[in-house]
Design a protein that fits this description.
mainly alpha; PTS-regulatory domain, PRD; two-stranded antiparallel sheet
């Protein structure tokens, strides 16, 4: 998915009133941030992460909570070689969202980021 494709996805979610303008803005900036970190113009298999992100931010702004992933999955995420980058990206989101995220949401975002990073970083070297 490239930047234009992501903008189209966000526009659809906004038009359907599934996400807020603020969550769309933060998600778009997070997408750009990850492109910059990976020094690429396209992310493979990032649709799940970057659809989840604005929807999660909208959910949180509406006061809705979610149950986090299973403990076994969380342990696996924290052992990922890409966990530190994922954690840094989630901290970036919190800073730009101007709110702390609940741990359950952080764990889902860590999971999605770790997956996207695993797919888009080959042999530990940025593509």
């Amino acid at each position: 998915m490239n930047l234009n494709e992501y903008k189209e996805r966000l526009t659809i979610l906004l038009e359907q009133e599934v996400i807020t303008d603020k969550s769309s803005d933060v998600a778009l900036q997070a997408f750009k941030e990850l492109l910059k970190i990976l020094n690429t113009t396209e992310l493979d298999q990032a649709e799940m992460l970057f659809t989840h992100l604005p929807m999660a931010l909208t959910r949180m702004s509406n006061g809705e909570n979610v149950e986090g992933p299973a403990k076994e999955i969380v342990n696996e995420i924290y052992d990922s070689p890409h966990f530190l980058i994922a954690k840094t990206q989630v901290e970036w989101i919190e800073e730009n969202w101007n709110h702390l995220l609940p741990q359950e949401e952080k764990d889902y975002l860590y999971m999605h980021y770790s997956t996207v990073l695993t797919i888009n970083v080959q042999g530990g070297v940025k593509r």
